[in-house]
Design a protein that fits this description.
The protein is 29% helix and 34% strand. Helix 2 links the parallel strand 4 and strand 5. The relative contact order is 0.22. Strands 5-4-1-8-9 form a five-stranded parallel β-sheet, sandwiched between helices. A four-stranded mixed β-sheet has the order 3-2-6-7. It is globular. With 170 residues, it is of the alpha/beta class. The protein is built from five helices and nine strands, in the order E-E-E-H-E-H-E-E-E-H-E-H-H-E.
């Protein structure tokens, strides 16, 4: 398949999360809800630049997964490649602040994204993309997510795509 037959500029594979950031209100007991996940952030930036892309991930069948889908709908993020796992939850994280800076606490072990499996991949999306972008986080959240990322890369490479890798070293 040559580049002219590709439908997507980029396929992004990774973990989206809902975040809660501590505020100074009520003695630090109030949190501002937001969104995170490096690949989800990338997907939103790509949508804002009118790139043709697809997001591949997994969410729980819960309020947080629905919040992310609503966000992606508002941002015109193509999320047809995001599965819903009714037996898992959508990952969340909390950010707290003190004199030493800000601190992250992640709740992702057993999340839908951490349970992604190679058999769940939307092969057609990967095969029709010029580039597959994967984050190091996807390799680190679980062995099955790591296996899924490597299989996605193999599928994309066989179809002639380039692989983009974000180490997530910030």
């Amino acid at each position: 398949m040559d580049g002219s037959e590709k439908h997507f500029d980029i396929a992004l594979l990774g973990e989206a999360m809902v975040g809660f950031n501590q505020t100074e209100q009520a003695g630090g007991k109030l949190y501002l809800q937001g969104f995170g996940g490096d690949t989800s952030n990338f997907a939103i930036a790509a949508a804002r630049q009118s790139a043709k892309f697809a997001y591949v991930s997994a969410l729980g069948d819960d309020p947080y997964g629905r919040m992310l889908r609503a966000l992606w709908g508002e941002e015109a993020v193509d999320h047809a490649g995001v599965r819903v796992n009714p037996d898992a939850y959508t990952a969340v994280y909390f950010v707290t602040h003190d004199g030493q800076g800000h601190h992250f606490q992640f709740f992702r072990q057993g999340s839908a994204a951490s349970r992604m499996r190679p058999a769940d991949l939307p092969r057609g999306i990967l095969e029709r993309s010029r580039v597959l972008h994967v984050s190091g986080i996807s390799l680190a959240i679980s062995q099955t997510a790591c296996d899924t990322a490597f299989e996605a890369a193999a599928i994309a490479r066989r179809a002639g795509a380039k692989i983009s890798f974000d180490t997530n070293l910030r």
